[in-house]
Amino acid sequence: MDRLKAIETFVTVAELGSFRRAAARLRLSPAMATTYVNRLEAELGVRLIARTTRRLDLTERGLAFLADARRILDLVRAAEMSARTGEKRPAGRVSIDAPASLGTLYIVPSLARLRAAYPDIVVDLTLGDRGTVFRADGFDILVRVGEAPLSDRVSVTVGATRFVLVASPDYLARRGCPHRLEAVLDHDCILYSSTDAPGGNPWRFIEDGVPRMVRAPATLTFNDGHAISDAAIAGLGIAQTLEMLVREPIADGRLVRLLEHQCTATTPIVLTCMRDRYELPAVRAVMDHLAREIDWGLGSSPVRSG
To answer: pTM of the entire structure?
Structure first.
Protein backbone atom coordinates (compact mmCIF):
# COMPACT_ATOMS: atom_id res chain seq x y z
CA MET A 1 0.00 0.00 0.00
CA ASP A 2 1.18 3.54 -0.78
CA ARG A 3 0.82 4.67 2.82
CA LEU A 4 1.47 8.34 2.12
CA LYS A 5 -1.19 8.38 -0.61
CA ALA A 6 -3.59 6.62 1.75
CA ILE A 7 -2.97 9.25 4.42
CA GLU A 8 -3.48 12.06 1.89
CA THR A 9 -6.73 10.45 0.74
CA PHE A 10 -8.00 10.11 4.31
CA VAL A 11 -7.22 13.76 5.08
CA THR A 12 -8.92 14.95 1.91
CA VAL A 13 -12.02 12.84 2.60
CA ALA A 14 -12.14 14.19 6.16
CA GLU A 15 -11.83 17.80 5.00
CA LEU A 16 -14.39 17.56 2.18
CA GLY A 17 -16.77 15.13 3.88
CA SER A 18 -17.10 13.07 0.72
CA PHE A 19 -15.21 10.26 -1.02
CA ARG A 20 -16.46 11.53 -4.37
CA ARG A 21 -15.22 15.11 -3.87
CA ALA A 22 -11.94 13.87 -2.40
CA ALA A 23 -11.41 11.59 -5.39
CA ALA A 24 -12.01 14.49 -7.79
CA ARG A 25 -9.49 16.69 -5.97
CA LEU A 26 -6.88 13.91 -5.93
CA ARG A 27 -7.66 12.80 -9.48
CA LEU A 28 -8.63 9.32 -8.36
CA SER A 29 -11.72 7.24 -8.99
CA PRO A 30 -14.15 7.14 -6.05
CA ALA A 31 -13.52 3.40 -5.79
CA MET A 32 -9.77 3.92 -5.49
CA ALA A 33 -10.24 6.65 -2.84
CA THR A 34 -12.39 4.24 -0.85
CA THR A 35 -9.81 1.49 -1.26
CA TYR A 36 -7.02 3.70 0.07
CA VAL A 37 -8.97 4.58 3.21
CA ASN A 38 -10.11 1.00 3.75
CA ARG A 39 -6.54 -0.24 3.52
CA LEU A 40 -5.31 2.46 5.86
CA GLU A 41 -7.93 1.49 8.43
CA ALA A 42 -6.98 -2.19 8.03
CA GLU A 43 -3.30 -1.37 8.46
CA LEU A 44 -3.97 0.66 11.61
CA GLY A 45 -6.56 -1.74 12.94
CA VAL A 46 -9.03 1.04 13.77
CA ARG A 47 -12.07 2.63 12.17
CA LEU A 48 -11.28 6.23 11.17
CA ILE A 49 -14.49 7.17 9.37
CA ALA A 50 -18.02 6.15 10.34
CA ARG A 51 -19.97 5.77 7.10
CA THR A 52 -23.73 5.94 6.64
CA THR A 53 -25.83 6.28 3.51
CA ARG A 54 -26.22 10.00 4.15
CA ARG A 55 -23.00 11.27 5.72
CA LEU A 56 -19.46 10.63 6.84
CA ASP A 57 -18.28 11.31 10.38
CA LEU A 58 -14.83 10.89 11.84
CA THR A 59 -14.61 8.52 14.76
CA GLU A 60 -12.82 9.60 17.93
CA ARG A 61 -9.72 7.78 16.71
CA GLY A 62 -10.17 9.39 13.30
CA LEU A 63 -10.24 12.90 14.76
CA ALA A 64 -7.06 12.23 16.71
CA PHE A 65 -5.34 10.73 13.67
CA LEU A 66 -6.41 13.61 11.41
CA ALA A 67 -4.27 16.17 13.27
CA ASP A 68 -1.17 13.94 13.03
CA ALA A 69 -1.89 13.08 9.41
CA ARG A 70 -2.11 16.73 8.41
CA ARG A 71 1.17 17.44 10.15
CA ILE A 72 2.83 14.56 8.29
CA LEU A 73 1.61 15.79 4.91
CA ASP A 74 2.71 19.36 5.56
CA LEU A 75 6.16 18.23 6.67
CA VAL A 76 6.52 16.06 3.56
CA ARG A 77 5.52 18.94 1.28
CA ALA A 78 7.98 21.26 3.01
CA ALA A 79 10.75 18.66 2.69
CA GLU A 80 9.97 18.18 -1.01
CA MET A 81 10.09 21.92 -1.60
CA SER A 82 13.37 22.23 0.27
CA ALA A 83 14.90 19.42 -1.80
CA ARG A 84 13.75 20.98 -5.10
CA THR A 85 14.74 24.57 -4.39
CA GLY A 86 17.36 24.33 -1.68
CA GLU A 87 15.25 26.73 0.38
CA LYS A 88 13.13 26.05 3.44
CA ARG A 89 9.95 27.82 2.40
CA PRO A 90 6.51 27.24 3.94
CA ALA A 91 4.50 24.93 1.72
CA GLY A 92 1.19 23.13 1.96
CA ARG A 93 -2.55 23.72 2.10
CA VAL A 94 -4.00 26.09 4.73
CA SER A 95 -7.74 26.33 5.34
CA ILE A 96 -9.34 29.52 6.70
CA ASP A 97 -12.92 30.06 7.81
CA ALA A 98 -14.15 33.66 8.06
CA PRO A 99 -17.42 35.60 8.09
CA ALA A 100 -18.32 36.43 4.50
CA SER A 101 -18.27 40.19 5.04
CA LEU A 102 -14.86 40.25 6.75
CA GLY A 103 -13.40 37.77 4.29
CA THR A 104 -14.54 39.71 1.25
CA LEU A 105 -13.58 43.13 2.58
CA TYR A 106 -10.27 42.31 4.27
CA ILE A 107 -8.87 38.87 3.46
CA VAL A 108 -9.47 38.49 -0.28
CA PRO A 109 -7.70 41.79 -1.16
CA SER A 110 -4.63 40.58 0.78
CA LEU A 111 -4.26 37.26 -1.02
CA ALA A 112 -2.12 38.66 -3.85
CA ARG A 113 0.48 39.78 -1.30
CA LEU A 114 0.26 36.42 0.45
CA ARG A 115 0.80 34.56 -2.82
CA ALA A 116 3.76 36.76 -3.67
CA ALA A 117 5.37 36.06 -0.31
CA TYR A 118 4.49 32.35 -0.12
CA PRO A 119 3.92 30.92 -3.63
CA ASP A 120 4.00 27.33 -2.35
CA ILE A 121 1.07 27.75 0.03
CA VAL A 122 -2.43 26.88 -1.19
CA VAL A 123 -5.18 28.76 0.65
CA ASP A 124 -8.67 27.32 1.07
CA LEU A 125 -10.88 30.22 2.18
CA THR A 126 -14.42 29.42 3.30
CA LEU A 127 -16.80 32.36 3.72
CA GLY A 128 -19.92 31.74 5.75
CA ASP A 129 -22.04 32.75 8.72
CA ARG A 130 -20.10 30.98 11.50
CA GLY A 131 -18.49 34.22 12.60
CA THR A 132 -19.16 33.68 16.31
CA VAL A 133 -18.65 29.89 16.38
CA PHE A 134 -15.20 28.94 17.66
CA ARG A 135 -15.24 25.21 16.82
CA ALA A 136 -12.32 24.35 14.56
CA ASP A 137 -14.38 21.89 12.47
CA GLY A 138 -11.36 20.92 10.40
CA PHE A 139 -10.17 24.46 9.63
CA ASP A 140 -6.61 25.58 10.34
CA ILE A 141 -7.40 29.24 11.06
CA LEU A 142 -10.63 30.87 12.19
CA VAL A 143 -11.38 34.58 11.79
CA ARG A 144 -13.97 35.39 14.41
CA VAL A 145 -15.96 38.21 16.00
CA GLY A 146 -16.01 37.90 19.79
CA GLU A 147 -13.89 36.67 22.67
CA ALA A 148 -11.90 33.53 21.91
CA PRO A 149 -12.48 30.80 24.51
CA LEU A 150 -9.58 29.70 26.68
CA SER A 151 -8.28 26.44 25.25
CA ASP A 152 -5.27 24.84 23.64
CA ARG A 153 -5.08 27.37 20.84
CA VAL A 154 -3.09 30.36 19.70
CA SER A 155 -5.23 33.49 19.37
CA VAL A 156 -4.40 36.91 17.99
CA THR A 157 -6.71 39.86 18.68
CA VAL A 158 -6.20 42.18 15.72
CA GLY A 159 -8.34 44.90 17.26
CA ALA A 160 -11.86 45.76 18.30
CA THR A 161 -14.78 47.34 16.51
CA ARG A 162 -17.96 49.02 17.72
CA PHE A 163 -21.56 48.04 17.14
CA VAL A 164 -23.10 51.01 15.33
CA LEU A 165 -26.75 51.79 14.62
CA VAL A 166 -27.34 53.08 11.09
CA ALA A 167 -30.07 53.99 8.63
CA SER A 168 -30.25 55.74 5.28
CA PRO A 169 -31.19 59.44 4.96
CA ASP A 170 -34.16 58.37 2.81
CA TYR A 171 -35.49 56.03 5.49
CA LEU A 172 -35.09 58.66 8.20
CA ALA A 173 -36.85 61.26 6.04
CA ARG A 174 -39.83 58.89 5.70
CA ARG A 175 -39.99 57.47 9.20
CA GLY A 176 -38.29 60.07 11.38
CA CYS A 177 -35.04 59.93 13.34
CA PRO A 178 -35.25 58.14 16.72
CA HIS A 179 -33.56 60.02 19.56
CA ARG A 180 -34.23 57.46 22.32
CA LEU A 181 -33.50 53.76 22.47
CA GLU A 182 -37.15 52.91 23.07
CA ALA A 183 -38.17 54.80 19.93
CA VAL A 184 -35.95 52.55 17.79
CA LEU A 185 -38.16 49.58 18.58
CA ASP A 186 -41.05 51.17 16.69
CA HIS A 187 -39.03 51.16 13.46
CA ASP A 188 -38.29 48.55 10.80
CA CYS A 189 -35.27 46.65 12.14
CA ILE A 190 -32.68 44.70 10.13
CA LEU A 191 -31.01 41.97 12.20
CA TYR A 192 -27.98 39.73 11.83
CA SER A 193 -28.88 36.04 12.02
CA SER A 194 -26.38 33.21 12.28
CA THR A 195 -26.12 29.50 12.95
CA ASP A 196 -26.14 30.16 16.70
CA ALA A 197 -28.84 32.87 16.59
CA PRO A 198 -31.15 32.04 13.65
CA GLY A 199 -33.87 34.46 14.78
CA GLY A 200 -31.50 37.40 14.86
CA ASN A 201 -28.89 38.57 17.35
CA PRO A 202 -29.93 41.07 20.03
CA TRP A 203 -28.62 44.60 19.65
CA ARG A 204 -25.94 45.83 22.06
CA PHE A 205 -25.90 49.23 23.73
CA ILE A 206 -24.26 50.99 26.67
CA GLU A 207 -26.80 52.89 28.77
CA ASP A 208 -25.55 54.95 31.74
CA GLY A 209 -22.33 52.95 31.61
CA VAL A 210 -24.15 49.62 31.83
CA PRO A 211 -24.23 47.12 28.93
CA ARG A 212 -27.73 46.46 27.67
CA MET A 213 -29.00 43.86 25.21
CA VAL A 214 -32.17 44.72 23.29
CA ARG A 215 -34.24 42.25 21.29
CA ALA A 216 -35.33 44.39 18.35
CA PRO A 217 -38.35 43.28 16.33
CA ALA A 218 -37.11 41.85 13.03
CA THR A 219 -38.38 43.17 9.75
CA LEU A 220 -35.54 41.50 7.84
CA THR A 221 -32.74 39.15 8.90
CA PHE A 222 -29.53 38.34 7.04
CA ASN A 223 -26.56 36.11 7.78
CA ASP A 224 -24.12 38.44 6.03
CA GLY A 225 -22.83 41.86 7.08
CA HIS A 226 -22.72 43.22 3.53
CA ALA A 227 -26.35 42.28 2.98
CA ILE A 228 -27.29 44.14 6.16
CA SER A 229 -25.50 47.32 5.13
CA ASP A 230 -26.89 47.11 1.58
CA ALA A 231 -30.43 46.73 2.94
CA ALA A 232 -29.95 49.71 5.23
CA ILE A 233 -28.55 51.79 2.35
CA ALA A 234 -31.60 50.82 0.30
CA GLY A 235 -33.82 52.36 2.98
CA LEU A 236 -35.32 49.13 4.28
CA GLY A 237 -34.85 49.92 7.94
CA ILE A 238 -32.48 50.55 10.84
CA ALA A 239 -29.60 48.13 11.34
CA GLN A 240 -26.94 47.49 13.94
CA THR A 241 -23.70 46.25 12.44
CA LEU A 242 -19.94 46.38 12.90
CA GLU A 243 -18.41 49.80 12.36
CA MET A 244 -15.56 48.27 10.34
CA LEU A 245 -18.09 47.14 7.70
CA VAL A 246 -19.82 50.49 7.13
CA ARG A 247 -17.07 53.11 7.31
CA GLU A 248 -17.38 54.05 3.64
CA PRO A 249 -21.19 54.44 3.45
CA ILE A 250 -21.10 56.49 6.66
CA ALA A 251 -18.30 58.68 5.31
CA ASP A 252 -20.04 59.33 1.97
CA GLY A 253 -23.45 59.93 3.53
CA ARG A 254 -25.28 56.83 2.35
CA LEU A 255 -25.78 55.85 6.00
CA VAL A 256 -26.35 57.97 9.10
CA ARG A 257 -25.26 56.92 12.57
CA LEU A 258 -27.94 56.94 15.26
CA LEU A 259 -27.78 57.10 19.08
CA GLU A 260 -24.00 57.42 18.99
CA HIS A 261 -23.74 58.04 22.74
CA GLN A 262 -25.31 54.64 23.40
CA CYS A 263 -23.53 52.74 20.63
CA THR A 264 -20.15 52.35 22.30
CA ALA A 265 -20.19 48.58 22.90
CA THR A 266 -17.22 46.89 21.26
CA THR A 267 -16.24 43.36 20.25
CA PRO A 268 -12.80 41.96 19.41
CA ILE A 269 -11.78 40.64 16.00
CA VAL A 270 -9.79 37.47 16.60
CA LEU A 271 -7.63 35.06 14.61
CA THR A 272 -7.40 31.68 16.29
CA CYS A 273 -5.69 28.39 15.54
CA MET A 274 -5.20 25.14 17.42
CA ARG A 275 -1.67 25.01 18.81
CA ASP A 276 -0.64 21.85 16.95
CA ARG A 277 -1.66 23.44 13.64
CA TYR A 278 0.14 26.72 14.42
CA GLU A 279 3.39 24.77 14.74
CA LEU A 280 3.24 23.98 11.01
CA PRO A 281 5.27 26.52 8.98
CA ALA A 282 2.57 27.14 6.37
CA VAL A 283 -0.19 27.71 8.92
CA ARG A 284 2.00 30.01 10.99
CA ALA A 285 3.00 32.01 7.91
CA VAL A 286 -0.63 32.55 6.86
CA MET A 287 -1.80 33.46 10.35
CA ASP A 288 1.05 35.93 10.81
CA HIS A 289 0.24 37.43 7.41
CA LEU A 290 -3.41 37.90 8.37
CA ALA A 291 -2.39 39.56 11.64
CA ARG A 292 0.39 41.82 10.36
CA GLU A 293 -0.19 42.55 6.69
CA ILE A 294 -3.91 43.30 6.61
CA ASP A 295 -5.02 46.81 7.45
CA TRP A 296 -8.01 45.84 9.54
CA GLY A 297 -8.59 49.55 10.17
CA LEU A 298 -9.20 49.02 13.85
CA GLY A 299 -6.69 51.42 15.27
CA SER A 300 -4.70 48.94 17.37
CA SER A 301 -1.83 46.47 17.09
CA PRO A 302 -2.33 42.69 17.13
CA VAL A 303 -2.20 41.08 20.60
CA ARG A 304 -1.20 37.41 20.77
CA SER A 305 -2.30 34.96 23.45
CA GLY A 306 -1.91 31.24 24.01
So the answer is: 0.73
Helix-helix angle 3-16:60-85, to 10 degrees: 120
Per-residue three-class SS string for 109-125: HHHHHHHHHCCCEEEEE
The contacts of residue 126 (CB under 8 Å, 6+ apart) are 95, 96, 97, 98, 139
**Average pLDDT over every residue of 158-183:** 93
Give the tens place of pLDDT for each residue, 103-156: 998 999 999 999 999 988 889 898 877 655 656 666 889 999 888 776 778 889
- Give me Rg for the CA atoms of the chain: 23
Q: To the nearest whole percent, how much of the chain has pLDDT over 70?
A: 89
Third-level CATH fold of 1-88: Arc Repressor Mutant, subunit A (1.10.10)
Q: How many CB atoms lie within 10 A of CB 6?
A: 21
Q: Rounded distance, CA 284 to CA 90, Å? A: 9
Specify the CATH architecture of the domain 90-306.
Answer: 3-Layer(aba) Sandwich (3.40)
Which sequence spans correspond to the domains of the chain? Answer: 1-88, 90-306
